[in-house]
Each structure stands twice: as C-alpha cells, then as structure tokens.
Amino acid sequence: MIRSTSRVLISDLRAHIDQTVVVCGWVNTLRLQRKMQFVLVRDHSAMVQVTHRRDGGSLEAQLEGLSTESAVRIVGRVVDNPAVKLGGLEIVPESVEVLSQAESLLPIDEHTGLEQRLDWRFLDVRRRPTAQLLFAVQTTLEEGMRDYAYGHGCTEMHTPKLMGTASESGAEVFKLGYFDRSAYLAQSPQFFKQMAIAAGIDRVFEIGPVFRAEPSFTSRHATEFTGVDVELAWITDVEDVMAFEEQMLAHALERVAKVHGEAIRETFGLEVTVPEVPFPRITMAEAQSVLRAKGWDPEGTKEDLDPEGERSLAAHIQEQFGHEFVFVTRYPVSIRPFYHMRAEDDPSVTLSFDLLWRGLEVTTGAQREHRHGVLLQQAAEKGMSVEPMQDYLNCFRYGCPPHGGLGMGLGRVLMVLLGLESIREATFLFRGPNRLTP
Predict the structure, then answer these.
(1) Contact by Cβ (8 Å): 367, 403
(2) What backbone phi and psi angles, to 5 degrees, belong to 36?
(3) What is the pLDDT of residue 302?
(4) Residues 165 and 26 in one domain
(5) What are the CA-CA distances from residue 300 to residues 296, 303, 306 (Å)?
C-alpha cells in the first residue's frame, strides 16, 4: 500500500485509488447511522464521502463528536466505489484529527437572506460553490485583461489612494483626518493616470480600489469597488480607446470561457460567449431618439440614460445587431467632466463613451483634453476653481500628448458575466452606505 504523507486535494483523489492519503477540509454533512458513519468532507476543490463502519472504537467516537464546518485532517484509504453518488469514491479513515471544532449552531444556512449572509461572509463563501467559482472566475478575468494590457505595451501602475485635494468636481469623496490637515480617498485614479502619460509612460494600466461617497442603495453601486483603469498616449481619437477595450474584453472573456466555461454553465446556467469585435456604436442623441420612439419617457429632461433606458437600448442593439455590448458615444458636455475633449464638429458634446453590457453600464471612457489653455477654459465654464488642481494642471504646461482612457468596474463585469442580481454578491466584502463590516 502506498501512503501519501502530504495533503491531497479532493479533486485529485482518483489518481490515488487504493492509496492512503491525507485530506484536509471542512465537515460538510454528517450522517451518523446505527451501523455506519458517513461524513462528507469539503475542501475548495471538491467534496468526498468518508465511510466508517461502527466498531465501538476511538475512531467511532471521534466521528460522533464532529460538528458541521469543523476543520479536520483525515488520513485514510481511497476506495473506488461506484455506488457512492459523490464522484464514485470514498475514503475509509484510519485517523481523524479535529484541527478546529466549529460551534454546533451555524449562523447561516442555505435559506438565509443576502444581508445576513454578508454578515457572515467567510462562511457564506466557504459553504457555497457558486461563491468559490466567482472568485476563481474573477482571477482568470483579471489575468486575461492584464495579459492583453501587457501584450499591448501597458505599464502597470499603482497610484495613490490618498489625495490632498478632492479629485475632479470635489463631490462624492470621503474626507478624513491626515495628521494636522484633511485628506481625501481617491474616487478615481484619473488625474494620476494622466500624470503618468505626461511623465512619458505611453500606456498605463491599473487594477485597484476606488472610493465613491454616494448614498446609493441600488444593486449596482458600492462605496468601495475595484476599478480597472487604462490610459493610452498618442492616440488619434477616442476610437483608439474603444478599440483597445473591446479587444481586451474579448481576450479576457475568451480565457474565462476556456478555463471556466463548463463550470459556469453547470453552476450558473449561463454560456460564456466571446464577443465579436468591433462592438456596435451609437451616439447618445441617436440612442435617445431610438428609445423615445419605443416609448421611453423618463421624468424631466434627461441628458443621460437611466437604468430602464440602458436596458431598453441593450434590447434594441441585441435585436438589430445580435450583440450584447454597445458603446454609447458623444455624451453632452453638461454631464461629463471638464477634462473630456469636446468634438470639433459639435462643441456641445464630448469625445466620450459608456460601454453597456446586457443593459448595464460597465465602463466610462473618453479622449482627454491635453491642451493647458483649453483645460483652463473648460474648468472655468463649469465654475471650477483651478487652484486645488495645480499639480494636475501643471502636467499640461510642458507638452502632453493626445491621450484617452477608460475606467471599468470589475464587480459590474462579474455581475453581468455570471448573471448575479447584486454587486454585493460579486464582491468579497461589500462596502455600501450602511455596511462597513465585516
């Protein structure tokens, strides 16, 4: 008999039939019958049945004293048993070591609502294969985006999350004490990305935390989330930025489909499709015209799309082009930041875009205004004081190339990809207006 002294993952047990192995994991289910004891043990890879015939010995007593979710180390022989529904394998134990005994009454179960599950997120993730898969998919998705960015000349940067002045408009920022003065949590790496462009780093890429102090309680908003940011120098126009994003997403989704496609199909009932490029494009004016013709009538004058409008537009694009993605372009100046470049043929609109995926906005991007004098003029038009932004504006005083970029919400991408109802489920530890714990 061959004995493996190092831990074996449950998913790899079939390669160890008739061998004695060490398995570490959590007790998932106990079925303690009159003659037999069955314990289902789970690690992050799979689950296996531990089978023991009662004999009145110490092993029987150890198994009898187990509680659900206790962390255990099992030494036992792997047996091929087609009668076992769970993978056709079982472990006949030789020893059981309780590494950490769980309290007998768990605070959540399979019927617990989302908010209470978030209170016990470590247990929620540990006990649900869907959550385990989500973070594996997230890892592969990020890997795919990084791979594309690296392969297309991007330098990965880590920009500050503490700022001496409120970024952009100064709204929706968290203020905190910083020694003898105030600081702010960065609501975007935007200014820092542009500083990197001015520093001669042609293409910038970052995945990092973003903070938004907006009291929103929707299924798609969070006060802290992970942003995927890109900035590209020496562009011809904003089309270069959109082309970069659609290629990056197609590359990343192709990798997700290859690595996790089958698991996503089985667990979430969804097919991961690799989108064709280019994605459809539609201007904001055209989008509003299409939607109003279909009966979209938001309250008041709307220059932007509300969630209903985004969903309706996505349905229209799906019907017309058979595509799940659409770039909405040329947003009005009034609803875009001062640093977005304006169109020469229509100064009332910006060279900007949002990317919608299945009716949810996942990205905002634009060509930036790189001319110092024009930036000052556009800031003045919006009634902004330029004094707090001098460090940023200085980047444009000594030669800055044409550039543009995008900011993508990683949680929103995961929401759409896996068909989740809330960004709370697409985040390990969610932060919102009413949640700062765990």
Answers:
(1) yes
(2) -125, 155
(3) 76
(4) no
(5) 12, 10, 12
35, 53 contact by CB (below 8 A): yes
The two tokens of residue 390 are 């001098």
Whole-angstrom distance, CA of residue 421 vs CA of residue 63 = 39
Q: Are residues 173 and 64 in the same domain?
A: no
- Torsion angles phi and psi, residue 146, rounded to 5: -65, -45
Q: Which residues pair with 332 in a beta bridge?
A: 349
85 and 134 together in one domain: no
Residues 410, 361, 301, 330: is their CA dihedral positive or negative?
Answer: positive
- Domain annotation covers residue 419: yes
CA 44 to chain centre: 20
Q: Which two tokens stand for residue 372?
A: 């110092």
Please check whether residues 24 and 154 belong to one and the same domain.
no
Helix (H) or strand (E) holding 153: none
The answer to whether residues 316 and 382 belong to one domain is yes
| Residue 116 is assigned to a structural domain of this protein | no
Using the 3D structure, point to which of 69, 100, 131 is the last residue of a domain.
Answer: 100
Contact 32, 49 (CB under 8 A): no
**278 prior amide bond cis, ω within 30:** yes
User: What CATH number is given to the structural domain containing 69?
Assistant: 2.40.50.140
Residue 93 DSSP code: E
In terms of Cα–Cα distance, which of 351, 345, 318 is closest to 333?
351
- Which residues have CB under 8 Å from 297's CB, separation 6+? none
Q: Is 64 in the same domain as 128?
A: no
Q: Is residue 109 in some structural domain?
A: no
pLDDT mean by block of 10 residues, the chain; 438 residues: 77 96 97 96 95 94 95 97 93 96 94 95 94 96 98 97 77 91 94 97 97 92 97 98 98 98 96 97 96 83 86 96 97 96 97 98 98 97 92 96 98 97 96 96
For residues 67 and 148, membership in a common domain is answered with no
pLDDT at position 171 is 64
357: tokens are 């995926």
Residue 110 lies in a domain: no
| Domain co-membership, 220 together with 363 | yes
- The structure's pTM equals 0.93
Domains identified in the chain, total number: 2
Q: CA distances (Å), 208 to each of 143, 238, 277, 342, 354, in order?
A: 14, 24, 27, 28, 20
Residues 6+ apart with CB under 8 A from 273: 253, 257, 324
Q: How far apart are the first and last CA of the chain?
A: 47
Which structural domain range is residue 7 located in? 3-100
| Number of residues assigned to the chain | 438
Rounded Cα–Cα distance for residues 186 and 193 (Å):
12
